[in-house]
Amino acid sequence: MDCYLKPCPMCIEGLEPPHKALLLTFVASLVGPLFGREALLWFVDIASFGTALAYLYVAFSTYRQTGNLALNNNKREHHVKITAILSSIASLALIALLSHQLWLNYRLTPFIVIVAYTFLGLLLYKLRRQ
Q1: Mean per-residue pLDDT for 57-69?
Q2: How many C-alpha atoms does 100 have within 13 Å on its Cβ side?
Q3: How far is it, in rounded angstroms, from Cα 34 to Cα 116?
């Protein structure tokens, strides 16, 4: 079977689909509506905040790694740096807006969840590196 006919992750040799992540997403999708509309809105708001943080991380990483990229000339490197800076500014603006919206609607609880989620991610990252 050609690579063009397979799903994208299956094209890369040695890369298997993340079965556990897919199962977790499936279970969360089934159980989520049982918590009610307000809980679903809260989960979506938290996920939006996490996505904005991920975009910020990618933008900062791109800026820092620009010198290590195999770019043909300085003009492209300058373009990548400018794009990374603009992406960082956009991510920070989105984080500020989401923080304000989360604070108005829910006060302190989402921020506690975000900090706990971040520490859990760092712990899992450290455990997988060992």
Answers
A1: 86
A2: 5
A3: 23
**For residue 30, what are the CA distances in angstroms to 38, 42, 43, 58, 114?**
16, 16, 14, 31, 23
Collapse the DSSP code of 108 into the 3-class scheme (helix H, G, I; strand E, B; otherwise coil) and give the result: coil
Query: pLDDT tens across 9-60, in order?
Result: 555 556 566 777 778 778 877 887 888 888 788 878 888 888 898 899 999 9
**Separation CA 55–CA 60 (nearest Å):** 9
Q: How far apart are the first and last CA of the chain?
A: 37
Number of Cα atoms under 13 Å in the Cβ half of residue 68: 5
Measured CA to CA, the distance from residue 63 to residue 44 in angstroms comes to: 29
Task: Calculate the alpha carbon distances from 98 to 1, 30, 73, 108 in Å.
Answer: 45, 26, 38, 13
